[in-house]
Design goal:
about 60 residues, mainly alpha, Methane Monooxygenase Hydroxylase, Chain G, domain 1, Coil containing protein
Length: about 60
């Protein structure tokens, strides 16, 4: 039973760490998107939006677990 509890705690810690990394990635992509908008670079803007969507979906999955 103790092993099961330790594994559950470790899994939660991994999820929290992954969520923190995703938030940092999101901040970076938002800054990059801002830059792309300022440069009027449509290709870069589209790539940033796609990455942000992937990050958003992964964050939603983490919250749902």
């Amino acid at each position: 039973m103790k092993q099961v509890m330790n594994q559950a705690l470790k899994a939660k810690e991994v999820e929290r760490h992954r969520a923190a990394v995703l938030r940092m990635e999101m901040d970076y992509e938002l800054a990059t998107l801002f830059e792309a908008i300022g440069e009027e670079n449509d290709q870069k803007r589209s790539q940033c939006k796609q990455r942000l969507e992937r990050i958003r979906l992964e964050l939603l999955k983490l919250k749902a677990l």
